[in-house]
Design goal:
Length: 512
């Protein structure tokens, strides 16, 4: 719960300019011992106020500290303390009581008991449409029109006779009860329930599913707008009963959804058609990466229709990071490359989603969003490769790339590889990773790129001192020697640096 309402501090001066009549009785200040004790109680009141304010969101504990603070204020006053600390303690304590009470009441309303009082739900609500954490969109490719032909575990709905159903009351025809013994079956049956737009799902396993798991399902579940999740516990014993999911869907008809799926398929097919026959997994991953970066524009408003899901990326072409990752996942699955979605659930301003792709048995991190700076030269998009093929320790050095959750992927069966994980990094794979910076080493790299017809020069170094030297050569203009010596006849350049990963990418607008 977000509480953005602030209480006014009021006038602490209390009419300091007023005069006191000569006949007024002075308040008894007490002796020095009493005043010392009073100051001690005032300090305790202030500390309790601070503690209350700091913990007021935690189930009303702030209210308790606030009450204690008020009690010590009264005691301090009785001891004759005139310390401003006790007054500050009183103010903080009262604020703690009010805010703590609000949070406590709110929490009580989050507890959803059934009519028999046998179970309690501890639930949390997430708005996938407006969530700035980018909805963590993912989509596995399973053709919806063919789903009835797939041998799926039978979903146990309310008409079934199972023990879990008997522990949950008030079930309706729109609810699904899944009573299985393994995660794979549970995941598949939840996928079926979302495809059938069930509004409530109860599962016998503790799955700890994240938003990326729902979107690693068929077509990214783009028709799912919001979900609520939590756990059912036996109220008397506290024993776990079921995972609980409550889903809210967009107002779409079955026909609407089928039309949108066809639009997604058509867009994906145009990208797949650009992959040559016999391409290996690395080149498949690169081509899809490039096509998505060129196709999608990042939605800075975070509000365009479907900007957080697969449809927004592949059809509307305006999306945020979750939709980039969803589209990458969706198309890679169709071309036989295993991948997952990984998310960092940070604050509103820095949460992020990207992909882990398995290339020749090597799991590597690829972030299409951060490789798409939305910069074009004469209408041709500039595509970066700084975030193509990173090891986990490398990507976690970059802001917003700590790993909180990885999507559950039933189909990921790629064998592990003993190859060097660095081999799939773009700069190593394309032989533009250098161990030392000099005019000659740069000329060698740039010459290879000139012969390959590259319009962008790219290089990565492996130590900070050489990287600083590289940047210095760019700012001073010394790098032009290597550029011209390699064969490029250009006069204008723009360059992009990444200080964490120590990459340099030089763009020649003259060549576009």
């Amino acid at each position: 719960m977000n509480n953005n309402n602030y209480r006014p501090r009021g006038n602490r001066a209390a009419n300091r300019n007023s005069t006191r009549s000569t006949g007024a009785r002075r308040r008894r200040r007490g002796n020095s011992k009493e005043r010392s004790i009073g100051i001690g109680f005032a300090i305790v009141s202030l500390v309790c106020g601070f503690l209350g304010l700091a913990s007021c969101w935690f189930f009303g504990i702030g209210t308790v500290f606030g009450i204690i603070g008020v009690v010590f204020f009264i005691i301090a006053s009785a001891q004759g303390s005139r310390s401003r600390m006790k007054n500050a303690g009183l103010v903080l304590s009262i604020i703690s009581i009010v805010i703590g009470a609000v949070f406590a009441v709110s929490y009580i309303f989050m507890i959803n008991k059934d009519n028999n009082g046998t179970a309690a739900l501890n639930g949390y609500s997430i708005d996938r449409k407006n969530n700035v954490t980018d909805r963590s969109s993912v989509s596995e490719r399973n053709n919806y029109s063919d789903r009835n032909d797939v041998d799926q575990p039978e979903t146990k709905y309310i008409d079934g006779d199972n023990s879990l159903k008997n522990k949950i009351s008030n079930l309706s025809a729109d609810d699904a009860v899944i009573d299985v013994n393994n995660k794979e079956d549970a995941y598949s049956q939840i996928e079926q329930a979302i495809a059938q737009r069930k509004t409530k799902v109860y599962c016998s396993l503790e799955l700890d599913l994240n938003g990326v798991d729902f979107e690693a399902m068929d077509y990214g579940s783009f028709w799912l707008e919001e979900y609520r999740y939590g756990d059912y516990f036996e109220e008397t014993s506290g024993a776990f009963i079921a995972d609980y999911y409550e889903f809210k869907y967009y107002d779409l008809s079955d026909n609407d959804i089928e039309i949108m799926k066809r639009e997604i398929d058509e867009s994906a097919s145009r990208i797949i058609a650009k992959i040559p026959a016999g391409a290996d997994e690395w080149n498949k991953a690169k081509i899809v990466h490039d096509e998505l970066a060129a196709l999608i524009t990042y939605d800075l408003s975070l509000e365009l229709p479907h900007c957080h899901d697969l449809y927004g990326a592949l059809v509307n072409h305006n999306a945020v990071c979750s939709a980039y990752a969803s589209a990458y996942f969706f198309i890679l699955k169709q071309v036989g490359v295993d991948s997952k979605i990984v998310t960092y659930d940070g604050n509103v301003s820095d949460s992020h989603t990207w992909n882990i792709v398995t290339i020749d048995g090597i799991e590597t991190h690829i972030d299409v969003t951060w490789d798409d700076p939305d910069v074009s030269y004469n209408g041709v998009p500039f595509i970066s490769y700084t975030y193509f093929g990173l090891e986990q320790y490398e990507i976690q050095k970059v802001d917003s790339h700590m790993i909180d959750h990885i999507s559950y992927n039933v189909s990921n069966t790629a064998p592990a590889s003993t190859a060097d994980p660095k081999s799939v990094n773009y700069f190593i794979h394309e032989d533009c990773y250098i161990s030392s910076v000099s005019e000659s080493t740069l000329t060698d790299v740039f010459t290879r790129q000139y012969k390959a017809g590259e319009k962008v020069l790219r290089v990565r170094v492996n130590n900070a001192s050489d990287y600083q030297k590289l940047k210095s050569m760019c700012s001073s203009g010394d790098i032009w020697n290597s550029i011209h010596n390699s064969g490029y006849d250009v006069e204008n350049m723009e360059y992009y640096c990444d200080d964490e990963l120590m990459t340099l990418q030089i763009v020649f607008g003259d060549l576009y």
